[in-house]
């Protein structure tokens, strides 16, 4: 279970502070797929960096299975938009990277690399260098590398934001399958409301300044989802509801700033 308890983060700014996040209380049961949406500046990336332990909260705490998070750790895997990979390492050696830091027998490391390469459709490319890959393939490498450490929680920060529509949909199907196969908890930040509903079991809408939870909505769609689910009336109704919320909180924020 991932718990965010009265979580807050402010950044000093000349003449005051930016309240990036305030009083966030959220519990994510193990194995759940949660998507976080919100207008630009609502604190989505800040939220992920606090959970990843890359930044410290200024209030409250993050707990994973009851233990406070005090820094980065292999129990949380992080994937960024750019699909950051080590340019001098082959695909296979990129996927092995995090594992090299873990106290695992060599045979187990090799087993995991082979399994996650297959799971992300990269086996045939295992000897390629990143410069030979497309953006979608590089993002698969970043996902496989994060998953190979078998984290309790996979944190995805706009992972498909830079991809074209077809590649993005392929990656959405891939991440859902990987999630179902591994049972990992997934927390994904995205600008794309359609993507959030298609992937998530739950959608959190953040409001800006202070960043806070404006809505926490269950996604009432079948567990098995084809891309065609995006055309169902229930899907379209939820999409309109979430888009209206994001827009409303964004406008409110703009009006506040104008005063
Ligand atoms: N290191 C920092 N120093 C100062 N202010 C920051 C810092 N990081 C974030 N902020 C501020 O905190 C607020 C939340 O930023 P954050 O990047 O988390 O939002 P976001 O929802 O991820 O935005 P986007 O969708 O544009 O990536 C913004 O007002 C931002 O300017």
Order of helices and strands: EEEHEEEHHHEHEHEEH
CATH hierarchy class name of the domain at 2-75 and 153-164 and 185-257: Alpha Beta
Determine the N-to-C terminus distance.
41 Å
Biggest sheet architecture: 6 strands, mixed
Percentage of β-strand residues: 25-35%
List the defining traits of the structure above.
binds adenosine-5'-triphosphate, 259 residues, globular, Rossmann fold, 36% helix, alpha/beta
How would you describe what is shown here?
By secondary structure, the protein is α/β, with parallel strands linked by helices. The protein has a domain of 159 residues: P-loop containing nucleotide triphosphate hydrolases (Rossmann fold). Helices cover 36% and strands 25% of the residues. The protein has seven helices and ten strands. The strands form two sheets. The chain has a six-stranded mixed beta sheet, with helices on both faces. Strand 7, helix 5 and strand 8 form a beta-alpha-beta unit. Helix 3 runs antiparallel to helix 4 and helix 6 packs across helix 7. The longest helix is centred in the C-terminal third of the chain and has 26 residues. The termini are far apart. 38% of the residues are buried. The protein binds adenosine-5'-triphosphate (ATP). The site of adenosine-5'-triphosphate has 12 residues, from strand 2 and helix 1. GO terms for molecular function: ATP binding; ATP hydrolysis activity. This is ABC transporter ATP-binding protein. Keywords: ATP-binding, Nucleotide-binding, Transport.
